[in-house]
Amino acid sequence: MRYIQPRLGFRSGIEPVLLAASVPVRPGERVLEGGAGAGAALLCLAARLPGLQGVGIERDAALVALAEQNAAANHWPGLRFQTGDMASPPDLGMFDHAFANPPYHSGQGTPSPDLSRQAAKRGTEDLLAIWAATLGRRVRPGGTLTFILPAGLLPRATVAFAAAHCQPVAMLPLWPKFGTAAKLVLLRGIKGSKAPFRVLPGLVLHNLANEFTPQAEAILRDGLGLSL
C-alpha cells in the first residue's frame, strides 16, 4: 500500500492499522470512518478487502485531498473522502460498519504548538458522545461501531456507545509489552444488540527487545484481521 501524509505535523502511527484490522467488513458492505485524516485506516481496510465501498469524513480539506490522492494511487475507486465536521456531518446514507480513532485529549497536558497535531489529538469533553452519536445514526441495525482510544476513556466511551444505541459488546486491550498495563483499547458496539459485554484476551504489541511480536507483525505487515 502506498500512503502519502504530511511531512510535518501529525503523522499516522499504528493505531489506524490496528483499527482497520478490527472492522469485520464483508464483500458488498459499506463502511464509514470519522476523522479519516489522509485515509490510513480506510486504505488499510481496502488492502484487506479489494473492492471495498468506504467513505471517510475529515474536516481538514488538505487532508481530504491527500486521502483522495492516496486512494487513486492505490487504484481503489470504491473509497471516497468528504470534507465535513462530525458535529454536523453530510448525509452519506447508511452503512454496515463505522469506526474512528477520535481526538481524545480534553485539556490534559500542554497543547501542541502544531495545529495539525492539536486538531488530531485534542477534543472537547463531549467529543466521544458526539462522534458515537453521529456514526451510530449512520449504522444499520446489526452493524458495528468500533473506536480505538486510551484505556482511561473506556468508561466514557461505553456510555457514549450505549447512548448511540450501539450496545458495547467487546473490548480488546492492546498491551505495549507482556505484563504492562494497556494504554490503548479497541471498543466494539453493535447497533441494537443485547449481547453481554466481553473483555477479550488482547494483543501484546512488543517483545522484551522492543520488536513487534509475531502476532502484531502479522496484522501490521501482512494484513491479518483482528477479531473482536
Write the layout of secondary structure elements.
Layout: H1 15-22, E1 30-34, H2 40-48, E2 53-58, H3 61-73, E3 79-83, E4 95-100, H4 115-121, H5 127-137, E5 139-150, H6 154-163, E6 166-177, E7 184-191, E8 198-199, E9 203-206, H7 214-220
Parallel strand pairs: 1-2, 1-4, 2-3, 4-5, 6-8, 6-9
Antiparallel strand pairs: 5-7, 6-7
Helix pairs in contact: 1-2, 5-6
Question: Summarize this, please?
Answer:
This protein has helices at residues 15-22, 40-48, 61-73, 115-121, 127-137, 154-163, 214-220; strands at 30-34, 53-58, 79-83, 95-100, 139-150, 166-177, 184-191, 198-199, 203-206.
Overall description:
Helices cover 29% and strands 26% of the residues. It contains seven helices and nine strands. The protein has helices at 15-22, 40-48, 61-73, 115-121, 127-137, 154-163, 214-220; strands spanning 30-34, 53-58, 79-83, 95-100, 139-150, 166-177, 184-191, 198-199, 203-206. Strands 1, 2, 3, 4, 5, 6, 7, 8 and 9 form a nine-stranded mixed sheet that branches. The relative contact order is 0.15. The model is unreliable at 109-123 (pLDDT under 50).
CATH topology: Rossmann fold
Overall domain count: 1
Shape: globular
Order of helices and strands: HEHEHEEHHEHEEEEH
Give the helix proportion (percent range): 25-40%
Structural class: alpha/beta
Number of helices: 7
Mean pLDDT: 91
What is the CATH class designation? Answer: Alpha Beta
